[in-house]
Structure formats: structure tokens, C-alpha cells
Amino acid sequence: MQLHSLSRSPAIACFSDFDGTVTDEDSNDFMIDNMGMGRLARRELLLKVLNEGLPFREAFRAMIASVAANYSFPECCAKVKEANIKLDPGFKAFYEFVRAKGIPFVLISSGMTPIIRSIVGTLIGKEEASKITIIANDVDIWDESGSAGNWGVKFRHPDSPFGHDKDVAISDFKAQDPNIITFFCGDGLSDMSAARSATMREGSGDDLAAHCEKEDIPFEGFRNFHEVRKSVEAVLDGRIQASDLCAGRAGGTIVS
């Protein structure tokens, strides 16, 4: 992955989780809660990740397996499409802003690329979606059709406890330019690996906020991407230092 359009000072790159951060609903949670083990069992596994050291990789593998046992992969894609998942109300304006400013934007997700591509294409159009870099897990199909019981998640980093270590993508950018300011937006436990490596963490969910608080990792809460844009724009314009964006769950460092 190469840096581009980083001639300005400061150099900035933006990374974001997809499900539940860019969108109003997590497609994985939708499948697991409605087609797999159910919300209660999913939350119990996530609490074990947060409090008992269960690797996120193993929790997510079990969650997706519970869906795959009941539905084929094509059925899952169709069900997710029917769920009418929507974009965060500020995302389009944010995305147009970073593109206009030449700021690299990358989606890094623990979801599966085919489902993410389908959702993004539906929400912003296939042509525009094709311009977005997506780094995610994939799907393993064990028969010709991906029938029930014959598919599962294919982890990007199978040896990592995260399954997809989101730190890798951010670290690649930072290796090319150690002075680059990296923004990461996330909401859940799948974002834990990215939380330490980014210059600035923007958190919209209780799970990621709880992790950052537990590990004393500074972060800035946000309610939508309108607020993220304000933060990025203020740092880009030199009105505030990225290190000053650390108001915790309340957010609100940028007031205008």
C-alpha cells in the first residue's frame, strides 16, 4: 500500500472500521443475532474477549459458524441486503471532504469483503465504492455454492488473536512516513488492535470506549462523521494538535 497525496503538512491518513461505524447497523451482528447464536450468546462471547482474554478471532469464528450452520452464504448476502442498512448521516460528506483534500481513506474491517463490497456498492454506487480501499477478512467456501455448513470466515491474519490485525494497515502507512497523523474510527472490540497504533482514535461504541478506558488509551468520542470531519479539518488547518483530541466518551473537543 503506497502513500499518495501527502505533500501538505501535516500529512494525514484516515482509517475506519466499517460495520456499526460507517453504517448504522453492524451486518455481522445482524446475521449473528437473527440467523445464528442470537444476541445474548454473542454478547457473552464479547464480554469474555473484553474481560477474560478470549481471542477475538475465536469468538468471531464461533459467531460466524453459528450463522453458516443455518444459512448458505448467498442467503446471508441476500438477508443482509434486505436489512436496509444505512450509512452514518455524515459519512458521505466526510468521504467527499477527504477525497477533495487528497487524504487517503481506508476501510479496515473484521467483516468479510464480499458482504462489505455489496453494502458499500448499494449505499454509494458501485463505481464510487470501487475507489475505496477495503482491507478485511474474506469468506472460505468449501463447496461450489457455499451451502449451509460449507462456508466460514477466512481470517486475514489467522495467527493473530484478532483474526484481522488492523494495526498492520496503519503501521504500513506509518512506516512510509513516521510523521503521518493517522485517524482511526471504530466502535467495537474488533478495533482493539488499531486503537494503540493510530495517532488519534475516534470511538462511537461502548465496547471500544470500554477497552480504551481500561487500557488508558486516549480517545475522542463521536456521534457521527460530521464530528469526525471537524476533528480532521481542525488538525489539517493547524487549529488543534491531534494529541489534544482526547475528551473521552463525551467528545466535543472541536466545538465549531
TrEMBL record:
Signal peptide: none annotated. It comes from the Eukaryota. It holds the Pfam family HAD. The keyword Membrane does not apply. The keyword Hydrolase applies. Keywords: Hydrolase. One of its GO terms (molecular function) is phosphatase activity. This is HAD-like domain-containing protein. It comes from Collybia nuda.
